[in-house]
Specification:
Elements: E1 4-10, H1 14-25, E2 30-33, E3 48-50, H2 51-55, E4 65-69, E5 71-75, E6 81-85, H3 86-89, E7 94-97, H4 99-112, E8 116-118, E9 121-129, E10 132-140, E11 143-154, H5 162-165, E12 177-186, E13 194-199, E14 208-213, E15 218-226, H6 235-246, E16 251-261, E17 270-271, E18 274-276, H7 292-312, H8 317-329, H9 331-345, H10 350-360, H11 370-380, H12 382-387, H13 389-398, H14 400-409
Parallel strand pairs: 1-2, 1-11, 2-8, 5-13, 11-18
Antiparallel strand pairs: 3-7, 4-7, 5-6, 9-10, 10-11, 12-15, 12-16, 13-14, 14-15, 17-18
Helix pairs in contact: 1-4, 1-7, 7-8, 9-13
The structure holds flavin-adenine dinucleotide (FAD).
Residues 10-16, 33-36, 44-49, 122-123, 155-158, 180, 182, 222, 256, 258, 260, 278-280, 284, 289-293, 295 line the site of flavin-adenine dinucleotide.
């Protein structure tokens, strides 16, 4: 085992592997460590990703794609259906992945680019000298050792400790975490072309139930609810009720529980010699809980700045803050807009959800961005949008184009 690298990355999820690949491609010495013995396993994910974004990081491979979906169907509490499909969005939609294989494919690309990869290697602490992070303490096969480096990248997921060890506050309150449970259900008839969502405070308080097709009469059927809004109701109980009622013939062949950060952006994601990316930096989308693409996008930005900082011989926060500025002004902007909508959404009554769905059921979406959704809502139901104006005001202010359309149409 080498004890010196340019960069050590903790965690071989999508964030860690993309960062490792991009840094290794620039000729730097990189180590990617993963505490589990098998990268990608166990999976804690519904495995849905947007196609176009994915392609910016890896060429899709049928070996890790279970379904190529053409749209989404959303059912409000009274059963009103809103459909967003490829034909109306005019663009490509998404894949349902086999994440066990996907995460391994990403790690394989990092290795092929020249990164060293070590599994069953757990980070147990940071080496900090003169206020600079300059390495990682690791445990491999029961033996502790120190690995020194110029930059540590924390890609250690939702339960991240790397940030905390460096003095960064990444703590999450119950209202900041979506509690999720998911079954892989076999032996059911599922439309393989659509991801389906069910809303309603009875079935999923301040959240939703999803059905993502996985091919061969299988689907990921899951639920995400806000701990702060669900009282005594448990995600797994609500999910079991839904499956028993709607898929009595289904057989549960896998179960997943986990949390998704839905807190919006956190301020600090760097320290001297340290960067956080992906779920460790709380970069998942507060509405959908989706974090794979955001993790990969942030990883690419972090990699670029890490390479620059090392070349300049300056890994201080002063140099690394360009990463923070970059991700806050791109990803962060989208995450904060989503947070505003999430906060509105989690306070909707079932009647309001029905009314929203009814307004949107015949809407003609030109794409599937949040703004298109709001614009369609505006066109379909001006009164409802007016009622919601306080909630959506910040989103509107953020988006000049939408604001212009909004003004022109009032
Ligand atoms: C039920 C559920 C459903 C979801 N569905 C979707 C979805 O459909 N689409 C989507 O985009 N996102 C979804 N997400 C979110 C998505 O899974 C995450 O956002 C994504 O995995 C984040 O990637 P990451 O690389 O930051 O972290 P992770 O994928 O969590 O990877 C972190 C890695 O770090 C390792 N690690 C942790 N600590 C250490 C340590 N001390 N030393 C070494 N290694 C360590 C872990 O073992 C892990 O492999 C879902 C999440 C849940 C819980």
């Amino acid at each position: 085992m080498k004890d010196q690298y340019d960069v050590v990355i903790v965690g071989a999820g999508p964030a860690g592997s993309i960062a490792a690949k991009n840094i290794a491609q620039k000729g730097l010495d990189v180590l990617l460590i993963e505490k589990r013995q098998e990268i990608g396993d166990p999976v804690r994910c519904a495995e849905g990703v947007g196609k176009l974004h994915l392609r910016q990081h890896i060429e899709p491979d049928p070996r890790w794609i279970c379904a190529d979906v053409k749209g989404s169907r959303i059912f409000s509490p009274d059963g009103t259906k809103v459909e967003m499909a490829e034909e109306v969005s005019g663009g490509e939609v998404g894949y349902v992945l086999e994440r066990k294989l996907f995460d391994r494919a990403l790690a394989n690309e990092a290795a092929c680019a020249g990164a060293d990869v070590m599994v069953k290697t757990r980070a147990t602490g940071l080496i900090i000298e003169d206020d600079f992070v300059c390495g990682v303490k690791v445990m491999y096969l029961g033996v502790e050792s120190n690995i020194r480096c110029k930059i540590v990248i924390g890609a250690d997921g939702v339960e991240s400790k790397i940030g905390r060890w460096a003095g960064i506050d990444t703590s999450l309150k119950p209202s900041d975490i979506e509690t999720c449970a998911q079954y892989l259900v076999a032996g059911i008839e599922v439309d393989q072309d659509y991801c389906v969502f069910y809303l309603g405070n009875e079935i999923a308080p301040a959240g939703y139930i999803w059905i993502f097709p996985k091919g061969k009469n299988q689907a990921n059927v899951g639920i995400g609810i806000l701990g702060s809004k669900s009282g005594k109701k448990r995600a797994v109980t609500l999910l079991t009720d839904f499956v028993n009622k709607n898929m009595p013939e289904g057989k549960i062949i896998e179960m997943v529980v986990g949390g998704v950060p839905v807190c919006g952006t956190i301020e600090r994601t760097i320290a001297n010699g340290l960067m956080l990316i992906g779920d460790a930096a709380r970069q998942s989308d507060p509405i959908t809980g989706g974090g794979i693409i955001n993790a990969m996008d942030a990883a690419k930005m972090a990699a670029e700045i890490a390479v620059k900082a090392i070349a300049a011989g300056d890994v201080s926060t002063n140099m690394l803050k360009e990463y923070e500025r970059k991700w806050h002004s791109t990803l962060g902007h989208e995450i904060n807009n989503s947070l505003i909508v999430k906060e509105a959404f989690t306070n909707f009554t079932d009647e309001e959800l029905n009314s929203l769905a009814y307004s949107l059921k015949d809407a003609n979406f030109t794409s599937m961005s949040l703004l298109d959704l709001l614009y369609a809502l505006f066109k379909a139901n001006k009164k409802l949008l007016w009622d919601l104006r306080v909630l959506f005001k910040d989103v509107l202010i953020n988006e000049i184009d939408f604001k212009r359309e909004f003004k022109d149409n009032v």
